[in-house]
Every structure is written in C-alpha cells, then in structure tokens.
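Dear Dr. H.,

I hope your travels went smoothly. While you were away I took the liberty of generating a structure for the chain from your last submission, since the lab meeting agenda had it listed for discussion. I wanted you to have the full record in hand beforehand rather than looking at slides cold. The sequence, exactly as received, is reproduced here:
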Amino acid sequence: MKNLYIAISFVAMSFTLSAQNKDTKAADKLFARYEYVDAAKEYLRLVENDKADPYVYKQLADANYNMFNATEAAKWYAKATETNQDAETYYRYAQMLKASGKYEEANKQMQKFAAAAPSDQRAKAFKENPNYIPRLLDKTKLFNVNASDISSDKSDFGAVLYDNSLYFASARNGARKNYGWTDEPFLDIYKADYNTDGTITNAGVVASLNSKWHDGPVTISADGNTAYFSSESFKEKQSEKDKKANAKISQVYLFKATKSGDTWGELTALPFNDKSYSTGNASLSRDGKTLYFASNRPGSIGASDIWKVAINADGTYGEPQNLGNKVNTEGNENFPFIADDNKTLYFASSGKQGLGGYDVYQIDLSSGSDASNLGAPVNTEKDDFAFSFNGTKNVGFLSSNRGGNDDILVVSPICGVDVTVVVTNAKTGAILSNASVAILDDKKNVIATEMSNASGEVKYRVECNKPYVVQASKDGFEGNTFAITPSKGPSAKVDAALQPIDVIVTETEIVLKPIYFEYDKSNITQEGAFELDKLVQVMKNNDKMVILAKSHTDNRGTDKYNERLSDRRAKSTAQYIISKGIAASRISAKGMGELEPKVDCGKDCTEEQHAQNRRSEFLIVTK
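The corresponding predicted structure, in token form, is as follows:
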C-alpha cells in the first residue's frame, strides 16, 4: 500500500454523480472517506455480480491509482476508457502503464489526453517530445542508489539527515490504529542515529511531535532548534464536512515546534494554513529565511504545487509565492527539498515527462533554467520522491515504492567531471565546427559521439579519476585521439587540434602511415581509420583516381591461411573506403598473403617486424 498519497492527500478526486446509484452507494461512501482498500473491494463485488458500468470501472481504477496498485489500476482504466472519459483519466491511465513499464501503450493514452486537453502544459510537452523515454534512460548517471537499514515492512519515506540524526515518516507503529486509505497504521515522525560507518540504527518515535493523527515528514533548522512538520488540521479542531461521505475531512497543515532540551514544544500551526486546502511537506533553507512547501491553495497551477514563503527576522511570515511553471504543472508537484546552497531545489513531479508515476527533478532557482529529471537510477517506472541531500556528509536519501512498498533508499553522488572538447585547425588555430567527436572509456568502448557546435565545442560528463580519450575527425583533416587526464574535476578542457590532411602522392602510389592490423584480425582499427580518411580525402579531391589496395600478412600461419586473411583485410580496407562515399568502381582490393614482406626477417621476426608486415598499401591505377 502507499502512504505517499496520504502525504499529498489533496490529490484531486473526480465524481460522476449522475452515474452513482443505490448499488454503488456503499462503495462511493468509502471512496469519499478515502478508505480505498474497502472501497475497491465493494466496487469489485459489483463487477463480480454483473452490476458494473463505466462509472464503477473508473472508480475502481481510481481507488487502485490512489493506492498505487499500478497493474490493477491499468486493468480497470482499460475497461473505463472503452467509453469516453475526461482528460485526466487518460493521463492517469498513461501513468499506470508507465509504472508497469508499458511505455508504448502509455503513449497511446497520452495521445488521447493531449487531444482532450490540448492547452495543458503536460499535453504540450508530450506533443513536442513524445519519445523522450530513451533520452531519459541514456542520461549520465549522477547517483548510486542502495537500500537502507531503516526501511521496514510498512511505509517509510521523507528521510532528512541533520547532524547525526535521521528524521523520517513511518507507518510502522503497530500501536496505532490502521487507516482505511492504506490499511496501515497512521504515520508517525521517527528519528534514528546515522553512524560514522553509514549504518542507521536506533529508530524511535519522536513522541513530542506526534499526535493520534498523521504526522510527518519534518524539516529541521540548521541550528537544530526549530522544526516544521506536517500534521492534520484535526489537531487544530478544524475540518470540512463532507455530507455525502458523512465525514469530517481533515487537511494537511504545517506546524512549527521549538526544541527545549531533548524534547520539542511550543507547537503552533502556521498562519497560512487553511481548512479548505492542504499545506505540507516543507523544507527549510539553511539560512532559515525561506520555507518551501507543497499546497493546492488558490493560485496553484495544478492539483498540488511547490510554494515558498519568507520567514522574517521577527518570526512572522510573508505572503506565500507559487514557484511558477518552471517547477509546477497541471499535475502534482510535491516534496520540495532546498539544498545547502539555498538555490538548488529538488522536488517530485507526476506532471513532467518522467519514467513513471512520480520522478525527482532538480532546478537552479537562481538561473531561470528549466527543471531537469535526475534520470536513472534515482528515477524508475514507479513512484520516486522525497529526495534530500546532506552536503556535509555527502549522502542523500530517496523514497520509492520500486520494491512494492514505500522505502527509504540511500543516495551517494557519483563524482563527475564536465569535459569540454574544443576542436581547432592545428595550423591556423581556427575553430572547427561540425567535427565528429567520440568519447571512449579505458576499454575503448565508444560512450557517445557528438558533432562540435559553432564554437567548435562538444561537452561530456565523465566519472572522476577514470581515464578517457576523445577521438576527433573532420573531412580535410587528420583524425586524432586526445587523452582526458583522470581528475576529481569539477571540469576539464581538451584542446583537439587537427592537422589538415597533407598526403604524399607519387606517380605510382599514395603514401600513408602504415595501415596495421591486429594479429589474426581483419577489422579496421581506429588508428587505421584515421589514415584511410586521408586516402578518402585525396580520392574526393581527384574524382578520376582509381586505387588498388594491397593487403599483406606476417609469415605466421600457412600460406593458404595467410592468403585468405590478407584477402579479408584487403576487402575490409576497400569496404571502409566505399562506406565513405567513394564509388566501388574506383577501389579494388588484393590480398598478397606473406609474399611481399616489408621486412624480410624469415623465421626470426620480432613482434615489431611482424606488425610492420601486417599492412595495406595503395597503388594508383589511373589518375
């Protein structure tokens, strides 16, 4: 079950009142009271008794959606959408399909959503970039994610580390009664010890902050003496009456507490709470001047937005401000966390283009740039949320239901170096745009290939303290490789100066550096490709020129084997030339075996001499 949606209990609920009837009355009442476990059972009973209709299917789907039972939700959304539905239903259906890894099917539902709500920011983003998933999956890995010691068999989430204390919300307290939404106990605020070896022990309830209602998550001031935490409006004896559900509905409220000794006291509700909307899941900036929170208060773009409010020197509060559409969408944004630099904000969103339900994003609030998805493994096809990071200890925490339950995961940053490659003409220093630049790891695996921009630049992010090389090439220039010196970063520059091609062309042959082959192989190496590119350039400049490529082996192996090997090498050489746009009629290939050694060393050849004999040569047939 999911407690995520308890913490954002202002998730919009839609009711098709005209479709309700006496058969659905009991289920509808449970649904309106947020008792989704029992509501789903009642709606399912109607299905089993052949009393279902599109309304029942949709309610059954929504109940499972709110519990994040993705498979069941998708199953009933499929039934509900056999008839026309509102736009948000198609969006939810798409979310549940993504949560099951069914991205193509999700796109079909997103197309229906976009058609039904073309002005919605989520619809516009989808139409502009419908196939964004591969790009997200290919993003440079920023963090490692591992299980933590602190997760239980109940919902645990919203972990934040202050000094050596880890605070989080949990439904593990078996002494509490169960809540109908999740069939788990009400949430409590817990604190555990974060040890020097990274283990987390001694979790226990923070009794002075907890009530008989839902409590948590919490944010703590830099000096450790002030806490802001989520609880319920019931604590203030405030609620809204829902006549259909015959129930009082509580809202999420924010409270402030002050530490006295080892306990928290002076609990006060913040003045901008209101019983008509929810306000919760706060994060306090390290300078103590700004409180970020989630709310569906008037002025919100979507179902819930990220807001901020100034905390004045005298302890009063300014007017809450919406963070705008760089952060917020018509969907749900929640769980803000402001980093130590007071400008990097992490938050969860189900409205931006992500891998699943909720994804974690970051944005530099000082730059005016757009929010960016943190990519895998922070994000998965499931719900990933409540990201926090302690810069002093260089460790973060993430909440996710990727394992089937809301769990707390440990996040460790991957040290990265931002590499800028600048491609230039080695003779003139001129910038070379549209040059091909590939980056390779220490095993010579090509990680990525990009074209240099108008400034001759290509940018990559690589791991710290690992060797890499870049290969740069451009028509009319000799290709070359350039090493990236292993470092801790944060940045590095590579000057990739390419020599203009200047090839010796005699009456009978084109003289290149030897095109060597690895022992017993016929594939073109990268070094060989750089040289063959020079031949390609010469042939492009002389469109009547016809070339014979002769390939040779060393004298190891039988004569017959060497003839075959050299023939493969010759054909491989010719195929490379043809692949670069040279007509097949202008290049022929002949394998010479070991008949014409460059170094006639007999049976006593050194490895170097053997390598010199494994070569290709290029004779001019006609000019």
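Two observations you may find useful: The chain is about 20% helix and 30% strand. Residues 1-19 have pLDDT under 50 and may be disordered.

With kind regards,
E. W.
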